[in-house]
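Backbone description:
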Amino acid sequence: MFGYGYSQTALSNKTIESQVEKYKNDIRGPYKSIRWFCDDGTIRQPKDPCPDSVGGVQHATYKEDVEVLAKNNHVFLGQILSYTDKNDFWDESKNHSRLKQYQLGKYLARIDDGWVNQKGQFYRGAIQIEDEEAWGIKFYKWLLSKDNVLEKKYYLVLQSLKDIPHKGDDDVSQLMRVQSKVISDQYPKFMDLRVKIHSNPESTDIEKTIQFKKENSTKLVGDISKKIDELILTMQKFHKPINLKSLNKKINSLSTSGTLTNTLKIFVKNNTDNEISATLTAESAKMFFTIRKEIVSEKNASQRLLLLDIANELESFIYKQATLWTATTVGEQLDKIKALAMASAGNGSIELWEWQKIEALLVLEKQDQLSISELTKKLEIARGVVEWSSAMVKSEYHDVVQTYTSFEPKAYSFIDDRIRSSIALQLGKSVGELGSFIAKESSLNNKVLTITNQSTIRGLNPGYAFGELIVHSGSPEEVEVTGDKIYVFERAPSDLKPVAGIATVAEGNLVSHVQLLARNLGIPNAALSNENLEELKAFQGKKVFYAVSNKGTVIIKEESMMSADEKALFAKKVRKEDKIEVPVQDIRLDQKNIVNLRAVNAKDSGKLCGPKAANLGQLKEMFPDNVVEGFVIPFGIFREHMNQTMPNQNISYWQFLTTMFIETDNKREQGMAENEIEKFQLEQLETLRAAIKIMPLKPKFVTEIVNSFTSVFGKPIGSVPVFLRSDTNMEDLKDFTGAGLNLTIFNTLEKDKIIQGIKDVWASPYTERSFKWRQKYLLNPENVFPSILVIPTVDVDCSGVLITKGISSGNEQDLTIAFSRGAGGAVDGQAAESYLIKENGDYELISPAREAYHNTLPATGGTGKKIATFEKAILNANNIDQIKTLASEIRKTLAKKTTSNYKGAYDVELGFKENKLWLFQIRPFVENKKALGSEYLESITPKINTKKEIALSTPL
């Protein structure tokens, strides 16, 4: 049996792929032999069963290389449950990887004729289903005895019950989708019907499938005809009218007569003879949600298991009734959306606290009409529920799917299958219909090529672009982006280089470094659905025009469809005057000693050091208890070290850099192509960066660093972990943020690593990504000077960003905040918990966090990873009150304290440790005024009468 810890000698994906293929063609699959495993610990031959007085189970043993794969890669193929240790299977330290792999393995077996058991599935005695079911019951009784499992992992537990044998039946909807996929894979003409069955299954699909078989009977080779017959039988079972009386058997099996049991009995009694799909959907959603909310009050694990099985049957019932509920008016559609949103809370794909934040906003009061503005607000909330639900599926299964996809590409579709089998599919359809209605009433239509359901697309940053369309559904980190193309990703890369335009399924959050850079540079940026992304693949490689208006409408059209005005936008290059110049006239390179953070303030920005240190010094002055101690390595120390002779060059580091720019100008005057010039620059910068990383530090400077730890932090170097934050003079300029372009060394402890970290930070402005962003926007990118801010680590419980403006609302008096668990997640683009805090002090949830892991900062240095759960909000009311107070103080006093005439919004990085607020950075919030004020963007921005009233009786 599998009983191994994780090993570092992992097998390659190619090796695993070849093993999988070998097992597919092996009559025993991943198994070695059949044995009896007796309860007294003895193992017997297949024809020598355990004595009745001892008892035991018969099943296969694993091949040796299957066990090696488990040990070395934590990858488990062909799992047999009946002799798996329940703790190992729950696999808590690996975020329940083994359980999820079991589910994924079952899925692969369904869509690929047994997968690793294509031939091994006929290996008699390998798996005994009655033993698997008995194990499943024992497993769930053990698991469901723990309250925290239901509180923290309700969604996963409910999903697992669909795959782990414990009651002798299967999930018909899953089987129907799998069978239709297998047929379309073998006979592509079936694809249209497959898409229909996957996207919007209806009973009329049965007749369409029967007719398809008749029309194509002469072309159906092999066993395709038989598989279509099997699909028809499954569809008939799926669409068979459900009688709620079927739940009575399970309800009557509940041994308690508690409140929940009585509520279930009343629900069935009141709805058994009801045939109105709208009422059945709404009432079933309430019951489904009630089970989720109240199940912890039932303390018996066996009863909990029965209740969860009832819950899964209810979800299937709601799914089918929703397909029958055709909302005909706006009011009825809103009722349907609310019911399905509640059902999403019922199945755990949104958390109970998240539902509490939005429930009242979805309720229809006793009103007979709503304004366009009010309708749009309800649409945004409902769209959010769809996105949060899909994000829950991805959060739970992404790691396992990513691991398997690297050696078995068929695994990639697992997440989509889970989403489509859930309430999210029906909710998404209803939200899309409402979105289309509102778009029509407000003249707010997207025009994105010829794809369907465009109401799910929304612009995030205004701007326009022209370039080749690249659509990528895998990991974005593996894509080499270029500045002249438009990219559609599932999520934005963590280190995005300049691009012409971007759209993502996973929005991340509005205040990540990537989003701020896109906003800053006027790069069009939009969010879209998985379905939108898949449809856009048909236009891969085509030249397109892409624009996002100031109100978030999106246009994508092929080059041949561009208007004369749109072509004129790209008729000439952006004039050099559009770029800005980094001011260096006041820079102080004479300061060659380390400076205490307390001795700098905003006036030193761009002169002695960069804005991070200068502004943090200012915050230390204003909020002394909320800012750590620290010290600054000013520009002058960097410049002094750059005067040293560069290895193998016979000139100084600084001369090497300035010579490169002189040569660049010469090459440009000689007519060299810009791509060749860029190649030359990047090669030279690579040489410079490598040399800086091994640059000797002056002994006097090293001594000063050591002394500063004692004098500033009160502890010797090597005993207090610190952050080394790059802080250049090119950041936070009037029209350029530079957010996240240069290196931060996280939580480093040892002296040698700190010394090396200083050199690495000095080298970071010369990376390809940093240099390309500067080249795009700055007139004098050669005049970059890095200082370094050194501050002690705060191992925060959560961290995030505050923008003293409502980004989504546009109101200058609102606030936008985004927080992730642990350190650094929000600024790195994670799906953070985001709020809009309104001018009147009320706040609303924009999105919850959906990251499976978060960073920790241990006292030993480095970073750790901790598994996240979502049953509680990251921020509590006290945290939000502290943020509101901080924002008010910043608005009132920061400009006055710094004698600045700046009147815009601020971008603040902060965190909480045991509910104490810590400030880490403040900078101006820079938006692209050119994009916001573009005549073209204004021309495509519809004028919406937000006060227009819509009667709820209006037909859809």
Q: What stands out?
A: The radius of gyration is 31 Å. The longest strand covers residues 463-472.
